[in-house]
Amino acid sequence: MAVTAQLIKELREMTSAGMMDCKKALEATDGNIEEAVVWLRENGLSKAAKKADRVAAEGVSFAKSNGKRGIVFEVNSETDFVSKNEKFMNLIQQIGDALLNSTVSTLEEALEVKLASGETVKEACITATATIGEKIELRRIAAVEGDTIAVYNHANSRISVLLQFEGEIAQEDAYNVCMHVAAMAPKYLSKDDVPQEFKDAEMHIIKETTDLTGKPENIAEGILKGKLSKKLAEVTLLEQGFVMDEKQSVGKFVESKKSVLKQMFRFEVGEGIEKVETDFAAEVAAQLKG
């Protein structure tokens, strides 16, 4: 059967595959559209497997709540162009709905959650990798449950916040705390959460950069402790000055609302991933030679 533009269009609408891939699939199956769908999937999975070791440090973070349960997760791609792809963003919504309606809290569990399409999250990411042409993967997830849950998603889809409170705090106030977390990027919820390794490293830096010449031992010790305390206040949410009212800390603000902030999660796309600089001109040239 002849491969027509109409057949290519029909296959593309069915599978979301690229035009040239659709043409190849139809040519390989003598224009049989059902067999072409199978061909695309088999070859797509092969392509996806080849991309498994590539670095995906762009993408989207997303937080969502239904009032009793909240989730925040990050799905990575290789370039930031994909985050503007409608099909990719539809996948994000599907994953968000499925995870929110589940009881999972770990990445391993999340990957096995089924979407409305019947695919698991892991399978849907593989399919997206095959059709979009970039490595797509769910990188991490956090979930909370409780009476007062607040979420915030920054407009650029790269920063999301999930908070869980106990007490009487209003949603508007909880949302403002979320925005503070997004803007100020605290590393820890409270000073009690700061690892000793972090404290030791900061104290070493403080000692190396502070002139204590001529200071009595007790005075010098007080200066060092004061500087460390100030540093810890900069990186812990409850100690930070509240952006909506810098006269009080976030902790004091939450306390004034007769509440306790129990859990904090702030996801920023790509944080902690070592990005690989790609020479796209060289890559394209290599493909042309191949």
TrEMBL record:
Its main location: cytoplasm. GO terms for cellular component: cytoplasm. InterPro entries: EF-Ts_dimer_sf, Transl_elong_EFTs/EF1B, Transl_elong_EFTs/EF1B_dimer, Transl_elong_Ts_CS, UBA-like_sf. The keyword Protein biosynthesis applies. The keyword Membrane does not apply. Pfam families: EF_TS. Residues 70-271 form the Translation elongation factor EFTs/EF1B dimerisation domain. Associates with the EF-Tu.GDP complex and induces the exchange of GDP to GTP. It remains bound to the aminoacyl-tRNA.EF-Tu.GTP complex up to the GTP hydrolysis stage on the ribosome. Belongs to the EF-Ts family. This is Elongation factor Ts. The gene is tsf.
